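haha ok so turns out i had the wrong file open the whole time. this is the CORRECT one, sorry everyone. sequence first:
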Amino acid sequence: MIRSATPADATAVAPLMILAMGHIAGIFAKSENYKDAIPFFEMFFRMEDNQYSYANTLVYENENGIAGSVTGYDGKRLHELRQPILDELRKSDPDFTPNDETEAGEYYLDCVNVDENQQGKGIGKILINAFCDLGFSLGYKRIGLIVDLDNPAAKKLYKNLGFYEAGKRKFMGHDYFHMVKDYDKIMGNDFAK
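then structure:
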C-alpha cells in the first residue's frame, strides 16, 4: 500500500534514504560509514519545509512494515527546501555549496529507496509510478531526476518507466544523467518536450 509519510515513519525511512543517497550520505555525515547519517535524515524527515521532509515523501507499506519510500518536490522550491539542510551542514563547513540537481518546471524525484530485503519485488517501480502520478495530478508536466553515470541498471529502470535522458549534471562530486518524463509524451502529444 502506498500512503503519505508521517513524522512517525522517520526511524523506518531514514535508513532507506541512506541506501539511495550513497556517497552523499557520507558527505552529510562526514564519515565513510553512511549509516552515521541516519540521525541527520531522521531529524530532517520529522520536520516540514525541507527537501527530506515526511511532507515530501510517500511510503510503501506491506505486512513487513515500510518497505520503501520516494521523496520529491517542486523543482522551483529547491533553494527554499534545501536551505535548512545547508544551514545545518554549514555549521561545520561554511563553504558547503552543492550544485542544483533540479530546476523550475519539474516535479523532482529526489530519492527512491527499497529495503534491501524487499528488493526485486517491483516496489521501486510502484513507488516511482505513484510519484509520477502524484506529480501529474498536481499539474506538473514534467517529472525529473538524476541518476549516476555509474549506475546503468537504474538508468535502464527509469528508461523502462518512460524517462529519457535530457542531459548531464554534476552534483556532489559525481556526474549524473538528468532524466525526465513528460506528461505530453505519455499522453501521446509528442510535440512538447
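Strands lie at 2-4, 57-62, 65-74, 107-114, 142-148, 164-171, 174-182.
again sry for the mixup
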